[in-house]
Please model this.
Amino acid sequence: MYFNDDFKEQFWRMYHEENLLPQEILLWLGVDFDMLGRKRVEGIVQNLKKKYAGGIAEDRRKKRQTDLARERQVSKLRAEVEYLRQENEFLKKIVSAGKEAKR
Model:
């Protein structure tokens, strides 16, 4: 069973801000505590403590910075592809002009 980011954020808010026990949170979110088991629930709490050590806003900021870096990289690569297309067309015209001059 995997938990999405919304579930994790809700769980963390309820655990950290409302001081609820993990069993109570899972019950509230509709997940059977007994199905997961104590060790798995403890693991979830530990992972969320690591993930949200700087807070949920910090996690979102890191994700946004990563997304912006990817967007910049994609933009740079698109510009490079466009430049290479133009260069290719220019070289085709030179070759074509050279063939015309030989006739």
Notes: Residues 1-53 form one domain.
